C-alpha cells in the first residue's frame, strides 16, 4: 500500500489547488482562507468545541481564539449566559 508523504499528506487539496487554471480576474483559491471561513462558520453554530477541534485536527484552541474577533456578534449573545438558551 502506498501512502502520501510530505506536503501531500498534510495538505491533500494543495496539489489540486495549485493545478487549477483560473480565467479572467477570478480570485485565486486560498485553502487557508477557506479553512478559516469553515472554522468561523462552525464556531457560529451550536457545535461542541470538542467536535470542532477534532474535526479541524487542532491540538489547541489558539486558531479558534485568533478567529474570534472576526465573528459577527449576535444581538442576544448574552442569552446563553442568562439561562442557557439563545432566544
Primary descriptors:
87 residues, elongated, mainly alpha, single chain, 6 helices
Structural write-up:
It is elongated and about 50 Å long. It has helices spanning 7-10, 14-18, 31-44, 49-56, 62-67, 79-83. The mean pLDDT is 79. Helix content is 48%, strand content 0%. The longest helix is centred in the middle third of the chain and has 14 residues, at 31-44. It contains 6 helices and no strands. With 87 residues, it is mainly α.
Mean pLDDT: 79
* Oligomeric nature of the chains: single chain
> What's the N-to-C terminus distance?
52 Å
Total helical elements: 6
Low-confidence stretches: none
Biggest β-sheet: count, sense, barrel?
none
Quick summary:
The protein has 87 residues and is mainly alpha-helical.
Chart the SSEs and their pairings.
Blueprint: H1 7-10, H2 14-18, H3 31-44, H4 49-56, H5 62-67, H6 79-83
Amino acid at each position: 500500500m502506498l501512502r502520501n508523504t510530505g506536503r501531500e499528506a498534510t495538505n491533500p487539496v494543495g496539489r489540486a489547488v495549485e493545478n487549477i487554471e483560473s480565467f479572467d480576474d477570478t480570485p485565486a483559491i486560498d485553502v487557508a482562507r477557506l479553512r478559516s471561513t469553515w472554522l468561523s462558520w462552525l464556531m457560529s453554530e451550536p457545535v461542541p468545541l470538542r467536535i470542532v477541534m477534532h474535526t479541524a485536527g487542532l491540538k489547541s484552541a489558539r486558531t479558534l481564539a485568533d478567529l474570534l474577533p472576526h465573528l459577527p456578534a449576535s444581538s442576544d449573545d448574552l442569552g446563553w449566559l442568562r439561562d442557557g438558551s439563545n432566544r
